[in-house]
């Protein structure tokens, strides 16, 4: 096993437990996906707070791990064949962790692909569209006179929520069993009300399956623990 000191990021964010997975993150919807997964899977890890400021995510230290300057990222000192593995992109990390632990990714090849399908639904649709909803509705919308971007992302949020509402009919979780797809989707749907204060315009409160789903998600101990990792303060 190579020393973590081989990775430049560890000079800025030193490891106190170099035998554990090193998580570099911040508690955003994307960031908590990985901390929730680590908690759910019971994989030992050490969390390092990397804020969204340029001083952190655009630092040479962080860029050495993720050239795309986005959280989260990890280093697993015990990766494939015992060699360390550095990985960024939350979806890729979720797949890796689930496969490492042999859980939360379906029990058959067909189930695995169904899980990946809904994970990609989050990565390609829910995350980008709700992120733009946050920007244009909650954060910067008041500075933009043109209402079309705001209306577009409100409309996309409503459309995506309708897809989730239909998929959850008769199911507790997106594919029946709790998987990394739910770990990816849950934090983003939670952000609609909690972070973006967009419950009224998106109609999320009128979707009984989604509301029950979010209540189940929030009640999981690993979700509760992972949503505050690393602490903001």
Automatic annotation (TrEMBL):
Keyword presence, Transferase: yes
Gene Ontology MF, one: transferase activity
Pfam families, per database record: GST_C_2, GST_N
Organism the protein comes from: Meridianimarinicoccus aquatilis
Gene3D superfamilies: 1.20.1050.10, Glutaredoxin (3.40.30.10)
Highest taxon, organism lineage: Bacteria
InterPro entries in UniProt: Glutathione-S-Trfase_C-like, Glutathione-S-Trfase_C_sf, Glutathione_S-Trfase, Glutathione_S-Trfase_N, Thioredoxin-like_sf
Keyword list, A-Z: Transferase
Protein name: Glutathione S-transferase
GST C-terminal domain residues: 108-233
The keyword Cytoplasm belongs to this UniProt entry's keyword annotation: no
Domain annotation GST N-terminal: ranges: 18-105
